[in-house]
Amino acid sequence: MARIERSRVEEVLSEGYDFELGDYIKLGFDEFKEEWLMYSLYGLVACMILMLSFFTVIGFVLLLYPTMLGFAVASDKRNENGKISFSDFFDAYKNFGSHAVISLIVLLAYLILYVPMLLIFGLTTFVFEDFPQLGIFSFFGSFFFIFVAILIVYFVMIGLFFAPYLIHYGGYSGTEAARESFRLAFKNFWWLLLFVIVTGVIGGIGQYLCLVGMFASLAVASLMNYSMIKKVLMTDTHNEIEEIGNANI
Fold first, then answer.
1. How many domains are there within the chain?
2. Which of 15, 53, 82, 109 pairs as cysteine with 59 (C-beta 3.0–4.6 A)?
3. Which domain holds residue 16?
4. Which backbone phi and psi does 161 adopt, to 5 degrees?
């Protein structure tokens, strides 16, 4: 089984890591093709889970990370056993508590930014009514604040990119994973930003083609993300154990 060893994380933090964007994209596509039907079906289920949980607001945030991590977990199972069962996609939920910590950090970022934004919108309305000549400045000021808020939230999401994988594959707690994820992200921030934008575009392509395409493109994008994690952080401990066992026979 592939794992993220703490020694490897420290090594990457010390020495940095190269970014092979083309390889990650290719590996993600290759993995998807191995079990395209199962990955697409789970893409459908994942969309349904997130859409239904969205009505609770906080439920969407809490379920986002373990749900999306399902593609990576299933990919591991396929590489180990040569096949996937549908239950494999839900193995990431066993660390739900730690994933919830990461989710609450994202939610807190939203609240810190968007509560003042709503207050500014209210202030804009009053300013526009009482001082029409100043309304235009308040209007543009509000949209500038929204733009900055979106950038900061996106910054937080990029910073937490590694966190779910550190939790599931490295045994990190939620707070540890958040801290180390930010450190890893800033070792190669601009390449990581570009990669997230590219996979985000790929993940969204399906919704412009057809509904079924959305489920497939979501799976492909998630598997590309996981391919990057495997190349940068993971070691295959499964093979080492097998070799020891074979040597003793």
1. 1
2. 53
3. 2-244
4. -55, -45
Query: Dihedrals φ, ψ of 2, to 5°?
Result: -70, 140
Query: Residue 164: enclosing H or E segment and its boundaries?
Result: helix 163-170
Residue-wise pLDDT tens digits, 148-178: 777 887 888 899 999 999 999 999 999 999 9
The answer to whether 166 and 172 have CB atoms below 8 angstroms apart is yes
Enter the pTM of the model: 0.83
In the chain, % helix, strand, coil (3-state, to 5) comes to 85, 0, 10
Amino acid identity for residue 153 in this structure:
V
| Interatomic CA distance for residues 144 and 151, integer angstroms | 11
Q: In this structure, is residue 91 part of a structural domain?
A: yes
State the residue for tokens 């977990």. Answer: 73
Q: Tell me the backbone φ, ψ of residue 59, rounded to 5 degrees.
A: -65, -40
Evaluate whether residue 147 is within a structural domain: yes
The answer to the question of residue 249 being in a domain is: no
**What is the rounded radius of gyration, in angstroms, for the C-alpha atoms of the chain?**
21
d(CA 200, CA 218): 9
